[in-house]
Q: What sequence folds into this?
């Protein structure tokens, strides 16, 4: 079931095109990564879907409701947005901050809900502390607790681990994983590609327009050929003969003892290459498939854009 | 319109300024300064003073008492939107189901209640002090029913106007101090009006007091409507007005 359907969404600020003809959909319970460089339009997209700003053109259905000005209140009732800066009232305590938002969402039994939100982010013991006394990581957790108050169908998280140390980031990531477990759709914008790779079911890469979308694995396959890396103790006397086996499309020497072989399916080619190396009497140190990270995918696409604008 | 949401905004606002030394200081000190000067003047008016002398001295008290609801609310109201915007708290609030009118009324209510309570409180302290310590001729003018009625009616209405002007400027300003200064200045034209009453150029009779109060009420409602229309989510979040 689709929780978010976006069609040809476009936003202009005067002459500047911030988001250009973006279309995608996100399913219930999916963690969807929205990646892109600074100024790519990620936050603008979140703000449009969160009814904070109006699209110039295009349409969307957010939590089952068409994105129209008259539906703003109803949409906001069903979603939660945590901006990059959690925007807490620093003079108020954690509980008082949450009390305000429970009131704005019209939460029934606010005390119980606040307690359970604080329990979810492991902050019960800090409820009476002013937010100004909390570390950045703890403030992010308060922001997340706030996002849980209204039991949202979709949570938009804008750079939720920005500026956090690795331990605090890991805690926030565990919370996001927990949301998925509860069937909440998570729309995650982040610069941390390893975080997106670990958490997201699918990612979209935006650079004003949508550059690609899909599961990380599929994006890698789409962009990169499969590569087998062979390392030997000594240079092969006749590598062209050794690598002339079934499944290997081409090869090149990365250095005197390292060879890169491209192929369609490593499951077919790798055993044949292994046999050929053994038959040639090569001292093989390692034979492994080259792994392309989401970062490689991202850089490939963004570099293409940079090249295109030169 | 949800009164629960208005209440939630009001509670938050009151909690915030209770913990803001600048706000608490301004709200505590300003009225006391406004109280001391006219009281000293009134206590020095002799029992044999002419009617003009008495009216002039009482006029100063009345004027300063009516300035209180014009100068205290902008301190709070002018911060209400631009302050939140600058500290990054406005965007999360606007992502909730709260509607502009609810948010504005919550913020206005939170500025209105303490301002009016302080203005009334100071006025009653002044009136009682005059009754106890000033010459009977002064006390008679201060405790004159139409004079008191005008004071009681105009205080909340002037505060209301001052608050809407403050919030309106706050919704357009990009700096808190500038907003506070502009909001205080913007309330000053009403001083001319209060001066006419205070110095009895317009003699405060009951019908005149009620008539002017109705006019002020209409002005307050109009100011609220203008501010509500000025409240543009997109501009507040991005600094840009809506395109297309």
A:
């Amino acid at each position: 079931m689709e929780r978010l359907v976006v069609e040809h969404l476009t936003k202009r600020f005067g002459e500047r095109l911030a988001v250009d003809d973006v279309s995608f959909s996100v399913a219930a319970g999916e963690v969807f990564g929205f990646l892109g460089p600074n100024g790519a339009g990620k936050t603008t997209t979140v703000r449009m879907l969160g009814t904070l700003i109006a699209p110039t053109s295009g349409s969307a259905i957010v939590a089952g409701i068409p994105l129209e000005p008259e539906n703003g209140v109803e949409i906001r009732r069903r979603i939660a947005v945590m901006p990059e800066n959690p925007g807490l009232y620093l003079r108020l305590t954690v509980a008082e901050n949450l009390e305000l938002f429970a009131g704005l969402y019209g939460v029934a039994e606010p005390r119980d809900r606040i307690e359970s939100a604080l329990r979810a982010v492991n902050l019960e013991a800090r409820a009476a502390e002013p937010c100004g006394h909390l570390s950045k990581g703890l403030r992010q957790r308060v922001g997340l607790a706030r996002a849980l108050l209204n039991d949202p169908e979709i949570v938009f998280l804008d750079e939720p681990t920005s500026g956090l140390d690795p331990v605090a980031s890991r805690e926030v990531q565990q919370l996001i994983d927990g949301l998925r477990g509860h069937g909440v759709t998570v729309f995650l914008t982040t610069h941390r590609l390893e975080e997106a790779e670990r958490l997201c079911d699918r990612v979209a890469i935006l650079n004003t327009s949508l550059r690609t979308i899909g599961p990380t694995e599929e994006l890698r396959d789409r962009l990169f050929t499969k590569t087998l890396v062979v390392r030997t103790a000594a240079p092969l006397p006749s590598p062209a003969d050794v690598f002339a086996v079934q499944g290997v499309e081409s090869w090149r020497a990365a250095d005197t003892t390292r060879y890169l072989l491209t192929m369609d399916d490593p499951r077919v080619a790798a055993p044949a290459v292994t046999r050929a190396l053994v038959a040639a009497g090569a001292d093989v140190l390692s034979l492994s498939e080259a792994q392309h990270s989401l970062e490689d995918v991202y850089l490939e696409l963004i570099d293409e854009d940079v090249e295109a604008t030169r | 319109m949800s009164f629960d949401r208005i209440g939630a905004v009001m509670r938050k606002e009151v909690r915030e300024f209770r913990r803001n030394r600048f706000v608490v200081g301004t709200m505590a000190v300003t009225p006391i300064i406004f109280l001391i000067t006219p009281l000293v003047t009134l206590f020095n008016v002799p029992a044999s003073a002419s009617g003009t002398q008495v009216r002039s001295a009482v006029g100063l008290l009345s004027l300063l008492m009516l300035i209180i609801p014009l100068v205290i609310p902008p301190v709070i109201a002018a911060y209400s939107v631009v302050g939140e915007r600058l500290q990054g708290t406005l965007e999360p609030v606007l992502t909730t189901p709260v509607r502009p009118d609810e948010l504005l009324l919550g913020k206005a209510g939170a500025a209105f209640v303490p301002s009016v309570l302080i203005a009334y409180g100071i006025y009653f302290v002044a009136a009682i002090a005059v009754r106890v310590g000033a010459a009977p001729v002064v006390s008679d003018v201060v405790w004159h029913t139409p004079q008191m009625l005008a004071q009681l009616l105009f205080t909340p209405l002037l505060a209301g106007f001052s608050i809407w002007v403050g919030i309106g400027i706050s919704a357009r300003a990009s700096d808190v101090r500038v907003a506070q200064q502009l909001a205080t200045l913007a309330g000053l034209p009403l001083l001319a009006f209060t001066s006419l009453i205070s110095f009895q150029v317009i003699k405060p009779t009951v019908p005149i007091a009620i008539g002017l109060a109705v006019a002020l009420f209409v002005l307050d409602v109009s100011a609220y409507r203008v501010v509500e229309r000025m409240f543009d989510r997109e501009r507040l979040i991005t600094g840009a007005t809506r395109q297309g």
Notes: Chain B touches chain A at residues 2, 4-5, 7-9, 11-12, 15-16, 19-20, 87-99, 233-234, 237-238, 240, 242-244 (CB under 8 Å). Residues 100-133 of chain B form the longest helix (34 residues).
